[in-house]
Design brief:
The chain is an alpha+beta fold. It contains three helices and seven strands. It has one domain. Strands 1, 2, 3, 4, 5, 6 and 7 form a seven-stranded mixed β-sheet that branches. The protein starts with a strand and ends in a 16-residue tail after the last strand.
Length: about 120
Amino acid sequence: MNQAKIGIFFVVQGHLLIDATPLKQGELYGDAINFSGHFDYWEALKPTSAVEQLFKNHAYDYFPRGRVVYFNQTDSFKLYVDCCITKNEIEKLAAAFQLSDYQLARDVHYQCAICNADYLD
């Protein structure tokens, strides 16, 4: 097994905010191994940069976000991303999470203010 990580991320004006852990330290959730939560990360963050302050100036689900999850039965990683996340950002995320092999996926849970027609800020 490689050094791949699981966790969550946000993309704030091209900057990545990541909360990740090695796979072996993840939490079992059904058939998946998961880590962290978007709201919990947003709530606990004490901004130390202009990007983090911009992030905190909006609701936790305002910016594009996603998650890396490992699935036991298929021995595979899924990189769930918002539709607004670019190919270049996906490549940066894959590198940050040390993913050599993964499936790209979409999920209604990962929709930013632009993608979600029902979004209220």
